């Protein structure tokens, strides 16, 4: 297998991608262990708070689901971009699958937003505690805040991957300095 030489920037981007994906997994595992009980699936990632160190914590805090989505998206982008020159494969079918997944995730995002706010307008309460309990579930119902953020993450990742694959198909090379 012929391997192309790797630039330092590609290696750094790959390392950053791996660290970001590892951080996302660490957050998922940490809150699954420290908050073992939840009323609806994903609620632990919405009702908990991660406070960054001072002085940033004076300005903002983060929900775990927010950091998970940021880290998963950024880590995936870094890994794909770091390996762009080495990836070459037929992408036509893959692009169709990714665009279909993007459509489905976009639809779910919009449906969740409308359903979430409809329930909130009718019943009131804390936005972070509203779950999709429209029908019987074998497992706990899914928290709307969690589901909305995850479906938007999938939507954004699918669009990015489609754009990335389009660049590979058109023969775009990564920018070099």
Report a brief summary of the structure.
By secondary structure, the protein is an all-alpha fold. The protein contains 5 helices and no strands.
Provide an overview of this structure:
The protein has one domain (8-169). Helix content is 61%, strand content 0%. It has five helices and no strands. The mean pLDDT is 84.
Topology:
Elements: H1 8-34, H2 44-47, H3 64-82, H4 92-123, H5 144-169
Helix pairs in contact: 1-3, 3-5, 4-5
Defining traits:
5 helices, 0% strand, 177 residues, mainly alpha
Average predicted confidence as pLDDT: 84
**How large is the share of residues in beta strands?**
under 5%
Distance between the terminal alpha carbons, to the nearest Å? 27 Å
Return the structural class. Answer: mainly alpha
Backbone shape: globular
* Domain tally: 1
Evaluate the radius of gyration: 19 Å
Q: If helices are DSSP runs of H or I spanning 4 or more residues, what is the number of helices?
A: 5
Q: Residue share in helices?
A: 55-70%
For the secondary structure, the number of strands is 0
Largest sheet: none
User: What are the segments in which pLDDT stays under 50 over at least 5 consecutive residues?
Assistant: none
- Give helix and strand order, one letter per element, not per position: HHHHH
Looking at how many chains there are and whether they match, the oligomeric state comes to: single chain
